[in-house]
Specification:
With about 110 residues, the protein is mainly alpha-helical. It contains four helices and no strands. Keywords: Membrane, Transmembrane, Transmembrane helix.
Length: about 110
């Protein structure tokens, strides 16, 4: 065979480090999903905290009762209990902190 007509194929295998491949958000859709989920939970948590701080006790108690009923119907009672007791604890203790740091003058 003539060397000019003979085509040679050369394959080069590149070794990639798996940890380098998984650290990039472009190559890892699970990492991107977790980051988006964390941002969404941070946004919801911040707004829920602000609502609890601004709402009256009457609204908190009414919302708590409705949350417990809905959680019981959907068989999510432990989640509903955590949300209700968390809101009550935030209202009790964070309200005192904001009152202590921002005393109202008459």
């Amino acid at each position: 065979m003539d060397t000019q007509t003979q085509n040679t194929l050369v394959t080069v295998e590149k070794e990639t480090n798996r940890s380098d491949n998984m650290s990039s958000a472009d190559n890892n859709p699970i990492l991107a999903f977790v980051k988006n989920l964390a941002d969404a939970l941070k946004y919801v948590g911040r707004h829920a905290f602000n609502w609890v701080m601004q709402a009256s006790w009457k609204k908190i108690l009414l919302t708590s009762i409705l949350t417990l009923i809905t959680g019981g119907l959907l068989h999510l009672s432990s989640l509903a209990n955590g949300l209700v007791f968390g809101a009550i604890i935030v209202k009790l203790f964070a309200d005192k902190d904001s009152a202590a740091t921002n005393p109202q003058t008459e």
